[in-house]
Amino acid sequence: MSAPVQVDERPGVATSLRITEIFHSIQGEADAVGWPTVFVRLTGCPLRCTWCDTTYSFQGGDKRALDEVVREVGAYQTRHVCVTGGEPLAQRACLPLLTALCDAGHEVSLETSGALDVAAVDPRVRKVVDLKCPGSGEVARNRFENLVHLTPRDQIKFVIADRADYEWAREQCATRGLGAICQVLFSPVADTLAPATLVDWILADRLPVRFQLQLHKILWGNVAGK
Questions:
Q1: For 16-220, CATH number?
Q2: Tell me: the pLDDT tens digits for 121-157?
């Protein structure tokens, strides 16, 4: 088994990445939900969320040249591209990849845990920052300094496992003024919190947040490459 991919903070411009998979599907969440999308899943993650559904991306993967990845994405002739993981920003070459995809004319989104610095992400990229609730086991990894680097084009996501997570997320929205920064998304942990229960809480509190389910799981279940 390959060693876990570690965060690499050495200076210099990286020109290769370790890729778990590249596939064409429907975007299942965030504000691009429903759009045909090419997903580029980078290998490795420094976090270990209790409910993670992509643990297969923690290790292994294939080393690919950056320009090769951009060419493969382009072959799908699809406007929307999502760079995800794991934690994509754990690889140095993620930043130049994002820029190269934007330069190629794609509408690019980045799904990131928010535990790593997003300041250097190309401003053309839509950042979907997943703030970790206590139930994830990784709440201490939240980098709230990232909030100043978000714009109205970005999104903040909370994945909620129980009432305690919901109340914590509600408190973050109120005390940090998240709704004034960008769109806020609340999602239930699949097979843990009933979606209707989360909706009831949101409506009862009149929260100005957007409820979402993972469309790809409704269509195909928890299947890799979908």
A1: 3.20.20.70
A2: 999 999 999 999 999 999 999 999 999 999 999 999 9
